[in-house]
Each structure stands twice: as C-alpha cells, then as structure tokens.
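Suppose you are handed a protein chain with no further information: no name, no annotation, nothing but its sequence. What can you learn? This example shows the usual starting point.
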Amino acid sequence: MSDDNDNAYWSANLRIIAWSLVIWALVSFGFGILLRPLLAGIPVGGTDLGFWFAQQGSILVFLALIFNYAWRMNKLDREHGVDEQ
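A reasonable first move is to predict its three-dimensional structure. Written in structure tokens, the prediction is:
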C-alpha cells in the first residue's frame, strides 16, 4: 500500500470508530441517563423507555455496533486491497 492509500485507509477507519463511539455514548449515556426523565412516560414491555434503554437498549445497540463495525471494516479492507483471502 502506498502512503496515500495508508492515510485514506486509516482516516476511514478512524471515522468508523468515531461514529460508533458517538452512537454508543448517545444511546448509553444520553438515553439511559440524561434523557431518562423525558422517556419515563413511554411504556415499553411493562417498564418505561428510559429504564429499557439503560438496561437492555444500550446492550442491543452495542451488539449492533459490533456487527456494523465488522461489516464496514471488511468492506473497507476490500476497497483498499488489504482483505483476508
């Protein structure tokens, strides 16, 4: 890989990581803690939405982020010619 290709690869990689961290922080800290009082009136599965995000939603979003990251990195690896054969 050339230096320009290396830089493009790593900047794309860091962009994927940054967006994943932003989404994770928004869901776990934002919805689960900061916005919990606003979400308290919305019922979901016998409890309120704020509690659901704090207990279950953040875990499910985290799992979705893991699969999304793996899929996006495989796609990025193929684009830059560093995929596993």
